[in-house]
Amino acid sequence: MKYYPIFLDIKDKDCLVVGGGSVGARKAVTLEKCGANVTIISDRFSAECDRLKSSRICLEKKEYEKKDAKGMFLVFAATNNADLNRQIKADALKLNILCNVADAPDKSDFILPSIVDRGDLMVAVSTSGSSPAMAKKIRQALECHFGPEYAKLLQLMGNIRKKLLSSGHAPDDHKQVFHTLIGKGILELIESNDEININAILWDVLGKEYTYQDLVSSRSDE
Ligand SMILES: C[C@@]1(CC(=O)O)c2cc3[nH]c(cc4nc(cc5[nH]c(cc(n2)[C@H]1CCC(=O)O)[C@@](C)(CC(=O)O)[C@@H]5CCC(=O)O)C(CC(=O)O)=C4CCC(=O)O)c(CCC(=O)O)c3CC(=O)O
Ligand SMILES: NC(=O)C1=CN([C@@H]2O[C@H](COP(=O)(O)OP(=O)(O)OC[C@H]3O[C@@H](n4cnc5c(N)ncnc54)[C@H](O)[C@@H]3O)[C@@H](O)[C@H]2O)C=CC1
Question: Helical H runs in 148-194?
Answer without folding.
Answer: 149-166, 171-183, 186-191
